[in-house]
TrEMBL record:
Residues 1-27 form the signal peptide. Gene3D superfamilies: Cytochrome C biogenesis protein. Pfam families: CcmH. Possible subunit of a heme lyase. InterPro entries: C-type_cytochrome_biogenesis, CcmH/CycL/Ccl2/NrfF_N, CcmH/CycL/NrfF/Ccl2_sf. Keywords: Cytochrome c-type biogenesis, Heme, Iron, Membrane, Metal-binding, Signal, Transmembrane, Transmembrane helix. This is Cytochrome c-type biogenesis protein. The chain crosses the membrane at residues 111-130. Belongs to the CcmH/CycL/Ccl2/NrfF family. CDD domains: CcmH_N. Residues 17-158 form the CcmH/CycL/Ccl2/NrfF N-terminal domain.
Amino acid sequence: MTLSRTKLAFAGIAAALSLAMTPALHAKEAAPTAFDPIAHKRVVEVSEQLRCLVCQNQSIADSNAELAVDLRNQVIEQVKAGKTNKEIVDYMVERYGDFVLYKPPFKLSTAILWLGPLCLFVAGLGAFYINLRRRKRMVAEAAKPLSAQDKALADELLSGRKE
């Protein structure tokens, strides 16, 4: 039995769609937590506090990167071991540094993270102010009144008596 070209095309499209809908082979999903809802809630709370070190703009709760999956699994294991949320976060900070936190603490090594945006804003306001003053000075210099000699020359040129 032979398939018509249309049926073959539809079969090919269906196969392509099924391949496109499967997750990437290298990204592993975290195993669902097999414990009570309270522990699951704790895992989610801690995971949302920790930054994915690969993605850097997602928490490990949102990321599907391999490292994020491993970190989530570590959080699950520590919750199962009975550690508190603070102990788990402290362990992750000890292991990966303050960068793993979405809200790093204010200290000398993280001051640029907290003060950098403010400094850039103040610098931008300063540059804007300086630019406005420079333009105002340029307009004031360009708007000097004409001397009597310049005015006479302009009148002659406008009347067409002088070329």
